[in-house]
Amino acid sequence: MAFGFPTIKRRLFAVTCKRCRRDVPSGRDEFPFQSVAVECPLCGELRRYLPSEVFLGRPDQLVLHQQRHGGRYQTLMLPLLKIAGGGKVHTKRDAVNELAAQFGVSEAGRKELLPSGKQEVFDTEVS
Ligand SMILES: [Zn+2]
User: Fold this and answer.
1) For helices 71-84 and 92-102, what crossing angle results, to 10°?
2) Share of the chain above pLDDT 70, in %
3) Residue 96 Cα, ligand 1 centroid: separation in angstroms?
4) pTM of the prediction?
5) C-alpha distances in angstroms, 49 versus 36, 58, 77?
6) CA 21 to centroid of ligand 1, rounded, Å
7) pLDDT tens for residues 95-124?
8) What is the pLDDT of residue 68?
9) Quick one: DSSP state of residue 116?
10) How far is the CA of 31 from the centre of ligand 1 (A)?
11) How far apart are CA 115 and CA 26, in angstroms?
């Protein structure tokens, strides 16, 4: 017998990453009755989560974005999260500048990127 529950399909068992506090998919289709090891697609934190920490919900949009776009996004997110975790308050502009510095993109280089629209992409991805 097939019972269709299309709305339930869109939700899955997720955990809240203990490092970046994003909701990430647990990778389990059914509720886990034992602790599960989950690696955060965003910050790479690998931890075990107790069943009580697993909930049925939607993962964070950033996580879904990361899963769709793979390594390129993580390349930006990892240093950004390190910057964010550094304790200092950063504006988005500060973060972009710091990222650009870490990736060796000079001020002149970034201005050159403007006409092609790549600067816009760079900005958008850390927002
Ligand atoms: Zn994380």
Assistant:
1) 120
2) 58
3) 20
4) 0.49
5) 5, 17, 23
6) 6
7) 777 777 777 766 666 566 555 545 445 555
8) 81
9) G
10) 21
11) 41
